[in-house]
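Issue: copy button drops trailing tokens. Both records pasted manually instead:
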Amino acid sequence: MDILFHDGACSLCSKEIRILQKYEQGGLSFADIHRQPDSGAFAPGKEAMLRRLHLVAADGTWHVGIDATVRAWSHTPFGWLFRPLTWPLIRPLASRLYARWADRRYRRKYSCSQCSPPESAVEGGL
């Protein structure tokens, strides 16, 4: 069984997961990253999983970003709509657009200038 890891604290992500759950035809389960134990549960690491969509296939192969999306949707009747994202001429553009969107989503949700020391303080040895 494939396992799709998702950010349950993200309303947009949760909406897509609800749609996937509605149309999923078997072979796919869902795991909220925030509800997983921190000790060793995340092969790629929790922060990496919050930055990009991750899916681990039944054979242990990890799929990230566009590949995770395509693999997850392949468990629904709409999988064929997502397959073109893996075609050689489309994949590079789709991957760059996904990475930009995912980075922006992560920064807006999890980056906090109040929580991080200023760069000058870090360089100064604080």
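Record 2 (pasted manually too):
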Amino acid sequence: MSDKWLFMTASDLGRGIDFGEIDPVALTECYLDAASNHRVSSRVYARLTEHRARAEAKAAKVRADMGQRRGLLDGVPISWKDLYDTAGVATEAGSGLLKGRIPEVDAEVLHNATEAGTVCLGKTHMSELAFSGLGLNPVTETSPCVNDLDAVAGGSSSGAATSVAFGLAAAGIGSDTGGSVRIPAAWNDLVGLKTTIDRVSVKGAVPLCTRFDTVGPLCRSVEDAAHLLAALEGGKPADLCGASLDGARLMILDTIAFDDIRPEPKAGFNSAVDRLKAAGAIVDHQNAPEIAEALALSGTLFASEAYGIWKDVIEANPAVMFPEILERFRSGAAISAPDYIAGWRRLEALRALWGQRIAGYDAVILPTSPILPPNAERLLTDSDYYVTENLLALRNTRVGNLMGSAGITLPTGLPSTGIMFIGAPNSEERLLRLCTAAENALS
């Protein structure tokens, strides 16, 4: 039975605990064993937190035995991206710059999730300082894609995705600044939720761009995402009962989203759209010039803030960084303060135009990524390939970040391809209901 546990949804594991069919201690030991002994374990986990996990599992068992469970995920083991502070445990954000950094208190979201009863299994590998959509990290480890061990898993929440995809955690908590939850989720056939900026606390998370940084789960089902969101923010999960696609209005974004798309992501998306229509969704196509203009502002807004946050630390020891990531940070040095401020003022106007355009739709849909996971070895040896693939990987997901939206990626059924649903800011509950129905249509 324990092998089956490794590939159940977090919600089903929670129900098993609730029904007395699953012992939280046995469940945690099962995951700790898998996380220690799987052939890719060292490429997924930067470090395990065995002592903490066992203590939390024992407490969850006591609550279960007394009929005092704190919620559906009480006793369910999950992983944490290595940018969330964990008291007394190294949190290094995949970078030699932070080697040996040990925080004294948990990040707020980890504290909230622990209060909800989840079990912290350990810290997962990631792109260096979260500044890449690929997941390639020669400084620490590069997590492999579940569908191709020679390919990258997607970043920056690469280990978070692979911990779930390989059965080494029931769910993973990642972060999304430009697509870092949704890319690895899509490439590893998972559900990934990007939350609205400022909805979920980033206190105690190593920053990249504070005006874009968001927290989000990577998991096996939309139901899992709803319960994990509630755990992260200390709230109640969305009501997903009775969700339907009948009459739902969806807008396919034609602007840029399909430029240079590879055959597999296009086929996966088109197949998914056909199934959504068959389930009753009404699908329109629209161009949105404001999206093209917003994407052109990306370098100004992302790189400048990232370098502004990290420049002193980086320039004190640049030799320990992966050169591609170092160069990406340093590109922010050339951006002036007036250009940065003007860029943000223009983006706010573009967000208003976008809000008007999508007001009549339940969600905007587009391929999560226009490419498949690239080959890790070629990324290390071919700089032009690295730059091209990194920019393409993040292009579609950045639409949601730039527009300040909530977003969810679902697997299409074709390996390593996803369909992304984008809603208005703070529309997580509506999106989760819609995607519950979409998930049923796509399964």
